[in-house]
Structure to design on (291 residues):
């Protein structure tokens, strides 16, 4: 068997899923690290009664980070992230169980680049954050 | 339905903000890695920054009086729009090199696009800001295109 990992990657390969259930402590730490004072992330009465959300809203970039973790964990030490993009399609809330995963869409053995489709979805399968990425594999 | 985007607002597209220079510390990388639930040791130990760490590095630090009632800072690069409730849109990032502790990075932001779309409950305003991050010597680190939605 070849040791060159990219030679074994095929379109349709699935990236291992990362499941997150963000609680108020993690959401607080994230917004503290970000220096983000938006009340929808920590002020429950404001989020629910003024903004009309069903709970505290997860920060969009935190969900985006989970997509990059899915890619980085799959890549391991074999390459690097070249580009990533995602959009926050709908709000998610403290306590939601969200799974980040992806699928290999294209493999270019010459440039050693792989294109990935990414998504974060709820337990019911609704995609809350679609995305994509390009990764580059190092020569074996 | 009439447009929310006046010629004066649209004329702001292309405007650039002041450059922002920040020092990357191991402590801040570790805080970010813990807060986001990273599993890679190099991130948790602060040897290298996770891909989206730069968002925290360049998030504006404004004084309390500059925050709106809902705790949001006013992005002075973007003109005052007629809709004021912000929603995260999305981002696209191209990476050119890893970020490590001790790096001094420089960000330059440009307001690049402004448009509107019909949403389920009315018009939404979308705007885009491109942020180019380099080292102090000008070596490219990353380029981010961020889209924000106002409702």
């Amino acid at each position: 068997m070849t040791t060159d990992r990219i030679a074994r990657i095929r379109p349709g390969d699935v990236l291992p899923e990362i499941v997150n259930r963000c609680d108020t402590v993690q959401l607080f730490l994230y917004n503290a690290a970000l220096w983000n004072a938006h009340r929808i992330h920590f002020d429950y009465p404001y989020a629910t009664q003024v903004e009309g959300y069903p709970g505290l809203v997860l920060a969009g970039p935190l969900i985006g980070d989970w997509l990059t973790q899915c890619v980085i964990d799959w890549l391991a030490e074999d390459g690097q992230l070249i580009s990533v993009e995602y959009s926050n399609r709908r709000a998610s809330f403290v306590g939601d169980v969200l799974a980040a995963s992806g699928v290999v869409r294209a493999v270019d053995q010459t440039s050693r680049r792989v294109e990935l489709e990414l998504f974060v979805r709820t337990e019911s399968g609704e995609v809350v954050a679609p995305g994509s990425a390009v990764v580059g594999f190092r020569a074996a | 339905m009439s447009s929310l985007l006046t010629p004066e607002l649209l004329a702001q597209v292309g405007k650039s903000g002041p450059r922002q220079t920040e020092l990357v510390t191991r402590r801040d990388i570790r805080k970010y890695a813990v807060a986001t639930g990273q599993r890679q040791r190099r991130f948790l130990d602060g040897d290298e920054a996770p891909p989206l760490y730069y968002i925290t590095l360049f998030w504006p630090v404004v004084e309390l009086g500059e925050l709106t009632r809902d705790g949001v800072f006013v992005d002075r690069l973007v003109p005052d729009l007629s809709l004021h409730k912000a929603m995260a849109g999305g981002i696209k990032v191209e990476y050119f090199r890893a970020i490590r502790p001790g790096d001094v990075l420089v960000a330059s932001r440009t307001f690049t696009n402004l448009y509107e779309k019909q949403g389920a409950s009315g018009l939404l305003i979308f705007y885009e800001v491109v942020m180019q991050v380099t080292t102090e010597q000008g070596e490219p680190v990353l380029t981010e295109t961020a889209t924000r939605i106002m409702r």
User: Anything to note?
Assistant: Strands of chain A lie at 14-21, 79-87, 97-108, 113-122, 127-137. The interface with chain B takes residues 20, 26, 29-30, 32-40, 43, 46, 50-51, 59-62, 64-66, 68-69, 72-73, 80-88, 91, 131 of chain A (CB under 8 Å). The CA atoms of residues 4 and 140 of chain A lie 5 Å apart.
